[in-house]
Design a protein that fits this description.
The chain has a 23-stranded parallel sheet that branches. An 11-stranded parallel sheet has the order 16-19-22-25-28-30-32-35-37-39-41, with no helix packed on it. A 4-stranded mixed sheet has the order 5-3-6-9, with no helix packed on it. The chain has 1 helix and 47 strands. It is elongated and about 120 Å long. The longest helix is centred in the last third of the chain and has 17 residues, at 412-428. The chain is mainly β. A hairpin with a 2-residue loop joins strand 1 (11-13) and strand 2 (16-18).
Length: 490
């Protein structure tokens, strides 16, 4: 029940005044308030029909429906109000073919909860400080001749889709920067015989803690669902805790659309793209995106297509799995990159760029001729890469120092090629050092590892005067330091 202030009634008990409550049971309320009128003000509602008035000073409660002929802008007074449903507000011609959505619901400053059936023919604008929450069994149901409802989540606004069922159809949604769509019903579904996608434009945040998986409904399995499915246009933040795609291989559902044009995808747990052979999820041409895979998580994008000119940054301690499709630029800030299939012929295009900025392990990777690999942190490991010799290897300036482990690998050929690049950098910088392969590591060592201290001895044959404790063999580059006279015996 929605607890409200009852206007015009004051009761006194034990010399203390209190506010009584009034709520409706199973009624339909019609909004008549001015713009941004209070939801909990009975003066803003007619009960039963327009013009009936509100003699009992009621507002909609948990068993009620509400409706409005014109746009309704409601202030929820910072509270939470629960209603059963919102009445349908579109007009229908006699031929059952012409429909029009007649009004938009605007909400601010509080939470409105809808617990039962709800129509798609509902334009909603959720503004700063407001939450519109669907619970129970909820539908966006309509017919192909209906107009498309528009739902907008503005900065600071939030729509929560929860409960038993949410069926996409006949709507379009835009999430502004700062707005949030929380998507976690037990079942997502769509409607048969619809040829228009349901576009969801995300410039804010979508939270899907159990993923986004589209189900068929058993009683419509004889129909042919063409393309009436949700299509996510991702340019904000997408938080995934489960798979994306079709929850079954029911042929009527062609795909669940996902185009990533920018922004950030945050992944917890194990997330894959499932059962979408008809149309792959995609990273759009020229996209600049961040995939953040949390520790212990796995993001398998081997089922995605990747456009040209894509720049992808991998963050987080979890694993990113890739297939044959690879981006033009891949920056691995943290975690591991592995390939689920055979190693691709190249990592993206010729002269692709890969940057490692933190310690990572790359199980398998491949590069096109002329690709550049730059390591900016110690402890980067690349164990398998048949095409590593194609690359120009370099390290960041911070690693051009003695004893730096610039690369780890079980493959001597990888270390040998990396050494060539490091040695060229050291020479260009005028640093008297070189890369040395020691076990499974490429380490920067002094070009003069044998140093004789003339202050300790005058005899070059004295092992105690050499800093390594042994006399170097013939033809070894050495350095002499300290003041004194050194006896050299040819």
């Amino acid at each position: 029940m929605n607890r409200i202030k009852t206007f015009g009634r004051v009761l006194a008990v034990a010399a203390a005044a209190f506010t009584s409550t009034a709520f409706a049971e199973g009624k339909v309320f019609w909004w008549k308030g001015a713009d941004w009128g209070k939801f909990d003000n009975p003066a803003n509602w007619d009960v039963g029909a327009v013009g009936n008035g509100n003699a009992d000073n009621l507002v909609p409660g948990a068993e009620d429906a509400f409706a409005h002929d014109d746009d309704a802008k409601m202030d929820l007074s910072g509270g939470t109000f629960t209603v059963k449903r919102r009445a349908i507000d579109f007009t229908c011609a006699a031929d059952d073919k012409n429909y029009a959505i007649v009004s938009t619901l605007h909400l601010t400053n509080g939470t409105l909860v809808v617990t039962e059936h709800h129509s798609a023919k509902l334009n909603i604008d959720v503004w700063n400080g407001a939450t519109y929450r669907f619970e129970g069994t909820l539908y966006t149901d309509a017919h192909s001749v209906y107009p498309r409802a528009v739902q907008n989540i503005h900065s600071g606004g939030r729509i929560e889709i929860m409960g038993e069922l949410f069926r996409f159809f006949g709507m379009a949604m835009t999430i502004d920067e700062g707005g949030v769509l929380y998507l976690d019903p037990k079942k997502l579904a769509c409607w048969p015989n619809i040829t228009a996608d349901v576009p969801i434009y995300n410039n804010g945040t979508i939270e899907a803690p159990n993923g986004i998986k589209l189900d068929s409904l058993g009683w419509i399995s004889s129909h042919s669902i063409l393309e009436g499915v949700p299509y996510f246009h991702q340019n904000g933040v997408l938080k995934l805790g489960g798979d994306v795609g079709r929850n079954s291989e029911y042929a009527g559902i062609k795909y669940l659309g996902l185009t990533i044009s920018g922004g950030r995808v945050e992944v917890e747990n194990s997330v894959s793209m499932i059962n979408m052979p008809e149309r792959l999820p995609e990273i759009a041409d020229g996209a600049n995106v961040v995939f953040d895979v949390k520790d212990g998580g796995v993001f398998d994008i081997s089922g995605m297509s990747i456009g040209t000119g894509v720049s992808l940054t991998k963050t987080g301690a979890g694993d990113l799995k890739m297939g044959d499709a690879v981006p033009a630029s891949l920056a691995v800030d943290c975690g591991r990159v592995v390939f689920t299939d055979a190693i691709p012929a190249s990592l993206a295009v010729e002269s692709g760029r890969v940057i490692f900025t933190e310690a990572v392990t790359v199980a398998e990777i491949s590069f096109g001729t002329g690709s550049s690999v730059r390591v900016n942190a110690e402890q980067v490991r690349i164990d398998e890469c048949d095409s590593f010799a194609n690359t120009v290897f370099s390290v960041g300036d911070a690693l051009l120092k003695l004893a730096a482990k610039v690369l780890l690998s079980e493959n001597p050929a990888i270390l040998a090629h990396a050494k060539e690049g490091v040695d060229a950098q050291l020479k260009a910088a005028g640093i008297q050092a070189e890369g040395r392969i020691e076990g499974d590591a490429l380490i920067i060592r002094s070009a003069y590892p044998y140093t004789f201290d003339a202050a300790l001895s005058s005899d070059l044959a004295d092992p105690d005067a050499w800093h390594l404790g042994s006399v170097p063999s013939a033809d070894t580059a050495v350095r002499v330091k300290g003041a004194g006279t050194v006896n050299y015996n040819a």
